[in-house]
Design a protein that fits this description.
Number of domains: 5
CATH topology of the largest domain: Rossmann fold
Number of helices: 18
Distance between the termini: 64 Å
Low-confidence stretches: 43-48, 294-308
Number of strands: 37
Radius of gyration: 28 Å
Helix content: 25-40%
CATH class of the largest domain: Alpha Beta
Strand order of the largest sheet: 18-17-23-14-15-22-19-20
Largest sheet: 8 strands, antiparallel
Mean pLDDT: 87
CATH superfamily of the largest domain: P-loop containing nucleotide triphosphate hydrolases
Structural class: alpha+beta
Length: about 725
């Protein structure tokens, strides 16, 4: 089936992003129902949501994987991606925002802006994604639309502009006031909200509606000098002028149009969809796809010469079918039914045809599209071709990874990839039988291809397979998928914190690697200068060798050796971060020197120097928000202090008290049960990764001693 050629200015690629339990999937289900994509509403609490099709999602009532669909709303085609709200699955949000043109930032009318709300907002700002806001759950006790607007300003630095106002709140929530038409909209519950009636604004809301419409018109006028003159002259702005100006401000990210409703009670979602069409950008508004400025920022020196050739000029691809094809692979999913690999691709330019030979310019491999389709959650709609602005799925891209660029082999380009956070927690997995052991490697490889934040390593010292991810829940889901999808049964060890190592002072280190055992020997001599980098800065390698004391062809081997040493630091066997290494001197032997000798020498030189540079153990710190009834604030504060936490602030949160704190991840295991115990089951918490900080000396000593005892550190590092 050929993809329908569709006016690209009437295409909207958007996602719904929010904190956990904000109502994203419930909102998505209403979008599917009102657009006619589904004939009935699937409810999350019944395990029947279309967009939550994984068994684990249906059982747990949460979104784990981002799910894509495509619907029509009037004259517009909307490609929707429903993203997870739980912080453990933040990679799904990251990769979705990289390829979306706009987003709906969804908030609970009671809970307001939560830590995960701030996280996804920062993610969207990184990719310069325009947003509209939807304040959901206006039917809940304690709902306050205006408080959420204030929180968006104070906590996100946003400029929300209400386009609607709620009529009532909590049990009295009965509809919305549309500030464009200045009409009250009521929803017929017999038709599940499909039938909407416009009537006069309730008398007690007329003045407030006039006040907020004036603010909306003023915000619109500020986006255009001609409109501003008209506004100050006392002339009325037309509806078309208001909408165009609001859209301009939304695309420029100077304002965030705000809507409200209750998806579960079937109110307000239609107006949200109108807002998506009216204010979010089309692929044309998003502008051209641009080649990456720095193809070497990840330290990958493979195919350097080819990449240098490809990136000699900054290239662009306009969002047009007339341009050469280019797209970004932003998500990989294993298909349990076919046993194959599905690659999701955002088409930025050109036409993608079934059977096409494509270049994966990131890895310089040509591959062929064997199947092409549009996804509707778990269902597949076969296609013969896809066009600029489309989001589609492909089979046949066996070597392509998340973040790779696909393009016309005759017109190569490499787009900016996707940055993912490093995992913060790990567990050891042990297959229960020899048969399971044979299948484990295949299964873990497939899962690692799906998610770059899932890391698999094999500890040679202990013969353990270590899996690492973004949180306990994430790893629970991975183990469950191993059992259900891949039929691999595993025993799982206790969660372990993903510590890091760094140095705190500048040192110089010298090492000679000399090995002679008859015949040709090994010789390498390396001098390194090691320096601390500011937190979060990537590893930097500098070559200051002069006079050819180390031949040029061996410098990459020195860098390779240093990078290898970074993988397991000599202090406790954890990855080393925030380091700059400079090779400035050395020597070689015309016969005995080789690449392997310089790799080995550089590794030992780094480790020797690192231990002299006052090394330090770092631990992941989490932004934690604890929400409790006021009478339990003392107990909640005490529970944070007991875990080496720092209370950063307290405020009101929907009739409850919110405590914001920074707490080491290692102290948060089992906290769910602890907070429920001290608050008689009424306390909840959320947490997201914040940063790495030095571990207190006494605790660092304990961690290091344990690692030595477990054999995770080589004797030379003891």
């Amino acid at each position: 089936m050929a993809a329908k050629t569709f006016p690209i200015d009437h295409v909207r690629n958007f996602g719904i992003m929010a904190h956990i339990d904000g109502g994203k999937t419930t909102t998505s289900e209403r979008i599917l129902y009102y657009s006619g994509k589904n004939y009935k509403i699937g409810e999350v609490h019944e395990g029947a949501a279309t967009m939550d099709f994984m068994v684990q999602e249906q059982e747990r009532g949460i979104t784990i994987q981002s799910a894509a669909t495509c619907v029509m709303w009037g004259a517009y085609r909307l490609s929707l991606i429903d993203t997870p709200g739980h912080v453990d699955f933040t990679a799904e949000v990251e990769r979705s925002l990289r390829v979306l043109d706009g987003a709906v930032a969804l908030y609970c009318a009671v809970g307001g802006v939560q830590p995960q709300s701030e996280q996804v907002w920062r993610q969207s700002e990184k990719y310069k994604v325009p947003k509209i806001a939807f304040v959901n759950k206006m039917d809940r006790v304690g709902a306050n639309f205006y408080a959420v607007m204030d929180q968006m300003k104070s906590q996100l630095g946003a400029n929300p502009v209400p386009m609607v106002l709620p009529i009532g709140a909590g049990e009295s929530f009965s509809g919305i006031v549309d500030l464009i038409s200045m009409k009250a909209l009521r929803y017929d519950m017999k038709t599940l909200g499909k039938t909407v009636t416009a009537e006069e604004i309730p008398a007690d809301m007329v003045e407030k509606a006039k006040e907020y419409r004036q603010k909306m018109v003023e915000s619109a006028a500020e986006q255009d000098d001609a409109l501003m003159e008209k506004f100050f002259a006392g002339e009325e702005l037309t509806v078309d002028e208001i909408k165009k100006a609001i859209r301009k401000g939304c695309i420029a990210r100077t304002i965030t149009p705000a809507f409200c409703g209750s998806a579960f009670k079937d109110k307000g979602v239609q107006q949200l969809l109108d807002g998506v069409c009216d204010y979010l950008p089309s692929p044309l508004d998003a502008g051209p796809a641009v080649s990456a400025d720095d193809p070497y920022r990840d330290g990958d020196h493979r195919r350097r010469e080819v990449q240098q050739l490809l990136h000699a000029l900054v290239l662009e691809r306009e969002p047009s079918d007339a341009e050469p094809f280019c797209g970004l692979a932003f998500k990989i999913m294993n298909d349990p039914k076919s046993g194959g690999k599905i690659t999701f691709v955002r088409v930025y330019s050109g036409t993608l045809k079934l059977g096409a030979e494509l270049l994966d310019s990131t890895i310089n491999r040509e591959q062929r599209i064997s199947r092409l389709f549009r996804m509707h959650a778990a269902k597949q709609e076969p296609l013969d071709e896809a066009h600029a602005g489309d989001i589609v799925a492909c089979v046949g891209l066996t070597e392509t990874r998340t973040g790779d660029t696909l393009c016309d082999p005759e017109h190569p380009i490499t787009l900016e990839s996707i940055d993912f956070p490093a995992p913060v927690i790990s567990v050891a997995v042990k297959p229960q039988s020899r048969q399971d052991n044979e299948k484990l490697g295949v299964a873990l490889h497939a899962l690692a291809m799906e998610d770059p934040t899932f890391v698999v390593t094999f500890d040679q010292e202990t013969s353990e397979t270590i899996i690492a991810g973004m949180g306990e829940l994430y790893l629970e889901v991975i183990v469950d998928r191993l059992k259900r999808e891949f039929n691999v049964a595993c025993d799982v060890g206790a969660p372990q914190v993903a510590y890091r190592e760094t140095l705190t002072q500048k040192v110089e280190s010298e090492y000679k690697h000399v090995k002679q055992s008859g015949g040709r020997g090994q010789y390498a001599h390396v001098c390194l200068r090691l320096e601390p980098q500011e937190p979060g800065k990537d590893f930097e390698f500098v070559n200051e060798v002069k006079g050819g004391v180390i031949p040029t062809e061996y410098i990459p081997a020195v860098e390779k050796g240093v990078r290898k040493a970074l993988e397991a630091g000599p202090l406790a066997g954890f990855p080393v971060v925030n380091v700059k290494a400079t090779v400035y001197f050395g020597s070689y032997h015309e016969v005995d020197s080789n690449e392997f000798a310089f790799i080995t020498c550089a590794m030992q030189c780094f480790k020797q120097g690192f231990l002299k540079a006052k090394p330090q153990l770092l631990e992941p710190m989490m932004d934690v928000e604890v929400v409790v009834p006021e009478q339990y604030m003392g107990a909640a504060n005490g529970s944070i202090n007991q875990r080496r936490g720092r209370v950063e602030g307290m405020d009101d949160r929907g009739g409850m008290k919110s405590i914001k704190a920074t707490v080491p991840l290692g102290e948060m295991f089992g906290y769910s049960n602890a907070i429920r115990t001290v608050t008689q089951g009424r306390g909840t918490f959320t947490m997201i990764f914040k940063q790495y900080e030095p571990v207190p000396a006494s605790i660092a000593k304990t961690v290091i001693e344990k690692r030595i005892k477990e054999g995770k550190v080589r004797p030379s590092a003891e």
